Amino acid sequence: MDYKKTNAPTNTVTCDIMDFCKETGNIYESVAIIGKRSNQIATELKAELHNKLQSYSEQTDNLEEVFDNKEQIELSRYYERLPKSTLIATQEFKAGEVYHRNPVREKDKFDV
């Protein structure tokens, strides 16, 4: 998914707790789902940024030499301005874009 085109807010927003209970019926389960999705998004963004910054890395023999690359700085700033992974995950959960399942509930359905 392209997280750069998300409509998630870039800062925290007050939400009604009951909005999270609608889909799962349990606020704690909803928060756990959002947390797991947030970790997935953060991992993907970190890997993407690391791959892009890898092209700027230079091998130097002297540790005292530090080169500031303006393109590298701008790329890092761009990723810092993106909405946080928790806000993206919350927006996805509210929109119903997150697939989740509870194996315990599924087992109860089949045991009847």
Tell me what you see in this structure.
The protein is built from five helices and no strands. It has a domain at 23-58 and 67-97. It is mainly α. The radius of gyration is 20 Å and the shape is elongated. α1 packs across α2. The chain has helices spanning 18-24, 27-54, 70-81, 85-95, 103-110.
Task: Give a short summary of the structure.
With 112 residues, this protein is an all-alpha fold.
Number of helices, where a helix is a run of at least 4 consecutive DSSP H or I residues? 5
* Uncertain residue segments: none
Q: How much of the polypeptide forms β-strand, as a percent range? A: under 5%
Secondary structure category: mainly alpha
Radius of gyration: 20 Å
Largest sheet: none
What is the string of SSEs from the N terminus onward? HHHHH
Average residue-wise pLDDT: 80
Give the tally of β-strands. Answer: 0
Distance between the terminal alpha carbons, to the nearest Å?
38 Å
Helix share, percent: 55-70%
**General shape:** elongated
Structural key phrases:
112 residues, mainly alpha, elongated
Would you spell out the secondary-structure blueprint of this structure?
Elements: H1 18-24, H2 27-54, H3 70-81, H4 85-95, H5 103-110
